[in-house]
Amino acid sequence: MSGKQLETSVIIIGAGPAGAGSSFFLSKYGIPHVIIDKETFPRDKVCGDACSGKTALVINRANQEWLSEILNDAQTFMPSWGITFIAPNGKPLDIPFTTNRTATTKAPGFTVSRMVFDNFLFSKIASPYASVYQGATVTDIDKKGDKVVVHMLHNNVEYSINAPIIIGADGDKSMVRKKFLSEHTTAKTSAIGLRAYYEGVTGMHHENFIELHFLKEVLPGYLWIFPLPNGQVNVGVGVLSERIREKKINLRQQMLDAITNNPQIAPRFANARLVGSIQGWGLPLAMHRQPMSGENFVLVGDAASLVDPFSGEGIGNALYSGMLAAAAIKDAVEKGDYSGSFFSSAYDDVLYKRLGDEFRISTILQKLCNYPRLFNLVVNKAYKSESLRNTISSMFTDMDLRAQLSKPSFYLKILLNK
Ligand SMILES: Cc1cc2nc3c(=O)[nH]c(=O)nc-3n(C[C@H](O)[C@H](O)[C@H](O)COP(=O)(O)OP(=O)(O)OC[C@H]3O[C@@H](n4cnc5c(N)ncnc54)[C@H](O)[C@@H]3O)c2cc1C
Fold first, then answer.
1. Pocket test for ligand 1, best of 23, 47, 141, 311 (most atoms within 8 A of CB)
2. How many Cβ atoms from other residues are within 10 Å of residue 403's Cβ?
3. Any ligand 1 atom below 6 A from CB of 164
4. Is 338 left (phi over 0), alpha (psi -120 to 50) or beta?
5. Which of 41, 171, 299, 360 has the greatest number of CB atoms lying within 10 Å of its CB?
6. What are 354-393's pLDDT values in tens digits?
7. With a 6 A CB cut-off, is 308 part of the ligand 1 pocket?
8. Which domains are present in the chain?
9. Picking from 24-28, 170-174, 201-205, 379-383, which range would have the lowest pLDDT averaged per residue?
10. What is the C-alpha to C-alpha distance for residues 298 and 112, in angstroms, rounded to an integer?
11. HSE-up of 385 (CA within 13 Å, CB side)?
12. What's the CA gap between 342 and 347, in Å, rounded?
């Protein structure tokens, strides 16, 4: 074996949405970087496979043509126009993502398997500024003076890569996080999710609404059924880890029970077939603000615990944090300042200024899901009231409106029929 030494400005560990997002914007700023993934693309990632408007927003900022590719290929990226919430009492409520739709409006969300989507993102990393290593093993990460040194094995060659900054985009089990932030574990706020693909499920919404079933047994989590372009559906369940421990929930059994016995769900699976196996993975939720950077390092996506505490959405936040991390690094490179205090204000503070309210509201909503009666009340009233349905619909885009959901006065008004 021979050894190679590489010098670069930034090393990114992980080429999922967070790593790819970081790389797109570093390339835009002309900053040379090395990006490393242990897998070889296309690779799978356990997920619900639903992408929201935030995903589209970041891709559009990275390159408008990439978003056009997505929006013009409905066979691959299936447009989704809304959500069906199924209350604990079994009542469904259809909420479109947008209330002012014209003939040219594009769907704000889409579904696509992560095997396909992450490979799409990975293919866009190619740039004169990005050196990409996939199927590579990071054997160690060191600090040497004012540089980070990553030791990597790729195609039987040992590499030693030096850079003043490392981006941890290596997901829920992040090795970069463990190396630099070992004292801040997220176990208490994390959730566990299972995912399965099925064929032959009936009764899907004609405009590909994604379905969230708030089953009593898994609150404040939910079971989801998301349509996919190839006729398959993504079915899964996500529950807080502490709830699983407390109530000794067998998540797999819970999901299979719902598919076999739940009166709303079971008939639709009468002739369905499981494709592949049921798989699980962690969702590091953004329920408490935690440090996401320090001297010579920045964490993005799941490595920074940025999954929405209510919806479980993490792809959009992974891309978004990659975009903000790259902007902070651009300033750091210009100033030659790689200190913890610099990244804390240029990255952590900026991210929390933009996403902090969203995380706070979602944390409250997640807690409110512990009260099934409240959930039933809102769905029952919205079922009868078009204006309430429109208000909830507008909450997807209007944060001030969404904040109403976390206030007691909102429920009081509903109760009093105002
Ligand atoms: C069951 C479930 C359902 C979900 N459903 C949704 C959903 O419908 N919509 C949504 O928006 N979000 C969903 N999420 C969350 C979403 O999957 C994550 O938030 C998102 O994948 C985070 O992206 P990331 O790039 O930070 O991490 P990842 O997607 O995990 O990517 C990390 C990358 O780092 C690589 N890596 C890891 N360790 C190393 C190493 N040591 N060396 C080199 N490379 C390494 C991995 O191979 C991987 O490619 C779900 C999550 C789960 C578990």
1. 47
2. 16
3. no
4. alpha
5. 299
6. 999 889 888 888 888 888 888 788 777 777 777 777 777 6
7. no
8. 3-44+115-186+287-365 (3.50.50.60), 75-108+191-283 (3.30.9.100), 392-418 (no CATH)
9. 379-383
10. 28
11. 17
12. 8
Q: Where are the beta strands (DSSP E) in 256-319?
A: 273-283, 293-294, 297-299
Full-model pTM: 0.95
Say if residue 220 is preceded by a cis peptide, omega within 30 of 0: yes
CB of 109 within 6 A of ligand 1: the answer is: no
Query: What count of residues does the chain have?
Result: 418
> Do 286 and 306 touch, CB atoms closer than 8 A?
yes
Contact 251 CB / ligand 1 (< 6 Å): no
Asked whether the beta carbons of 77 and 67 are under 8 A apart, the reply is: no
Residue with structure tokens 């914007």? Answer: 25
| Strands, E assignment, 273-413 | 273-283, 293-294, 297-299
Phi, psi of 269 (to 5 degrees): -105, 10
Distance 118 CA to ligand 1 centre (A): 10
Residue 397's pLDDT band (cuts 50, 70, 90): low
**Residue 185 DSSP label:** -
For ligand 1, say whether the CB of 10 is within 6 Å of any of its atoms: no
